[in-house]
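In the laboratory, one determines a bound structure by crystallizing the protein with its ligand and collecting diffraction data. In a computational setting the workflow is compressed into a single prediction: the sequence and the ligand go in, and a structural description comes out. We illustrate the idea with cobalt (II) ion.
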Amino acid sequence: MVKPGRASQGFRMADFSLERLLGGLTPARFLAEYWQRRPLLVRQALPGFGDWLDRDGLATLAQRDDAESRLVRFRRGRCELEHGPFTAEQLRALPKRHWSLLVSGVNHLLDEGDRLLRRFDFIPRARLDDLMVSDAPPGGGIGPHFDSYDVFLIQGRGRRRWEISAQDDLTLVEDAPLRILRNFRVDDSWVLEPGDMLYLPPRLAHNGVALTACMTWSVGFRAPKADEIAGRFLDHLHDHLELDGLYADPGLRQPAHAGEIPAAMLDWAAQTIRTLRWGKRDIADFLGRYLSEPKPHVFFDPPRRPLSLAMFAQRAAKQGVALDARSQLLFRGRVYFINGERVELDAAGARALRALADRRELPADACAEALMPLLHDWYRAGYLTLGSA
Ligand code: SIN
Ligand code: CO
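The predicted complex, in structure-token form:
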């Protein structure tokens, strides 16, 4: 985790106002009228925003192998995509125009990014994907496209023109490494200045073109895809399957066709598969693990010389604990899921742990004695740290 590159003279998290972020709307009204439905432009949602990272700061993140970075370039009208990590030389050699550097998961790499993301907790964390930051010179962007995500585009440094279109024609350019729309028809457009924010629902076509050197911060919300959820659930079932038995065919008769699948084998397979049963609890177990699973490039840093349980408990009772920015903690009833792992608690433990899942911090007086062994395990895995207060 790095600290912001420069002391911010502009926006500070202490000045954050949810009412201003949503342009005076309450979260309930935003959710009822805009979320998943229509775009919302908020001027000065985060006044003075944009100083947390400059171009060099983002380029430094793009060189890390624990960051997911991409470089999009347009050369002779053709889109090219490269994946990071990049070297400083590669980034220094970029031309003056027509590229965009994008770094995902900035909430894992920048303290302030993590804190900003937490302010979006009027939307369930199970929907949250990450904070992505892009940098582009004048003319830079990733081309007209649509996302399957809900996204809040916050303008950092510089100015960017956003064009949107409610078109149904979502035909893509063939053979492009990114999903770029072949026919983009602009319905509306706005120039965003630092601190302005544009919310876009999924599948709304859009195109952001940098007017000056420009950085955009995207708070993205994922929506699980039906085929992926079903496929991954079947993988989960497989991993947790306890099924004995082996096909047997004593008394086998010589077949008329050696190449034909025997009817008895088909009946046995059908009967075996029919014995598979699952309920909502199995699905909740799968969903919790799936939604809390870290992305492939995410690794935790366990403490090199961990405190003993007794020492940890003593300190946690004074300082509280805080989730590591990379940790995802979700719950359903008494079952908790952290970074793909499942833990079932008793009713009191489950109640006590809710604050950690909701606010990502557990104050000292909420660190109940009974929770200490679990918190200590998570501390040893690098999933949480001792708090600062
Ligand atoms: C960008 O920051 O250039 C892309 C964001 C988006 O269009 O989703
Ligand atoms: Co987009």
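The domain at 13-221 is CATH 2.60.120.650 (Jelly Rolls). Keep in mind that any predicted model is a hypothesis to be tested, not a measurement.
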